[in-house]
Amino acid sequence: MKIGVIGAGRIGGNCARQAVKGGHDVMLSFSRDPSTLDTLAAELGPRASAGTPAEVVAFAEIVIFAVPWGTIPDALAAAGDLNGKIVVDTTNQFGSGAMPEAGQTAAAFNARRMPGARYVKSFNTLTSQFQAQAASRQGEDRVVQWVCGDDPDAKALVARLIEDMGYVPVDLGGTATCSVMEAPRRRGAVYGEEYRAADAQAVVEAVRAGAAIPPVPAYA
Ligand SMILES: NC(=O)c1ccc[n+]([C@@H]2O[C@H](COP(=O)([O-])OP(=O)(O)OC[C@H]3O[C@@H](n4cnc5c(N)ncnc54)[C@H](OP(=O)(O)O)[C@@H]3O)[C@@H](O)[C@H]2O)c1
Predict the structure, then answer these.
(1) CA–CA distance, 127 with 162 (Å, rounded to integer)
(2) Which residue among 5, 6, 11, 146 is best mutated to probe the pocket of ligand 1, counting the most ligand atoms within 8 A of its Cβ?
(3) pLDDT tens by residue, 125-163
């Protein structure tokens, strides 16, 4: 697939790296110093290129959106029309900028800021360093990347990409009910915690039932 990245830093850069390893083409964008995008693209090889956010939106089947929270309005302005585009939001609501209302998930808040986009949220619960290290794991040791969104087909395509990157995609449901995968790290949430496939289904069932999730698993 053609994967676009808006914000090719720690999270977006790792997503780009794993997408290339998984056989996908990537285009990187959005930097205060665009020469850094050329450098990273050269490092990633012939499957990678650099462009503007608008060029990324035109290029990509899936756009990975990985910018600091306070920069979201600028990044969206640079991206332009997202109508019909699958956008994977990796952001967490830290720092400056407009915030979700009480009781509103960050996913629902950001989905409204991306009108027409086929919004999916993922890659936001684990540190970039951990994600980079864990991508090479095999079999039952692979880590879960939680996914939420209100467009099942978009989530299915993103799930394929997540698998190709070396992780296990697990669909937690819609944007209105995904608060367990959102910051901050706290008791009763999956945010900030490692999960593997064997422990994920019980979380999905608890979220669907509106119940508390089981205790966070501990891995040797
Ligand atoms: N880091 C983590 O462990 C982690 C984990 C999960 C989720 N997240 C979330 O993912 C999102 C991206 O985080 P990150 O850690 O990948 O951030 P990052 O390393 O700082 O990367 C952000 C990218 O946005 C670019 N950018 C363009 N204009 C910018 C501006 N005006 N100000 C700041 N950056 C600008 C930066 O490029 P230049 O620096 O070249 O300008 C940089 O490549 C955040 O919302 C964060 O909360 C982070």
Answers:
(1) 16
(2) 11
(3) 999 999 999 999 999 999 999 999 999 999 999 999 999
Q: What is the pLDDT of residues 18-46, one digit of tens each?
A: 999 999 999 999 999 999 999 999 999 99
What's the 205 CA to ligand 1 centre distance in angstroms? Answer: 32
How far is Cα 217 from Cα 180, in angstroms, rounded to an integer? 15
Which residue's CA is the nearest one to ligand 1's atom 15?
Answer: 10
CA of 133: how far to CAs of 23, 33, 43, 69, 130, in Å?
19, 27, 18, 24, 5
Q: Which residue has its alpha carbon closest to ligand 1 atom 40?
A: 31
Q: How far apart are CA 41 and CA 200, in angstroms?
A: 34
Cβ contact 164:171 at 8 Å: no
Q: Ligand 1: does its nearest atom lie under 6 Å from the Cβ of 35? A: no
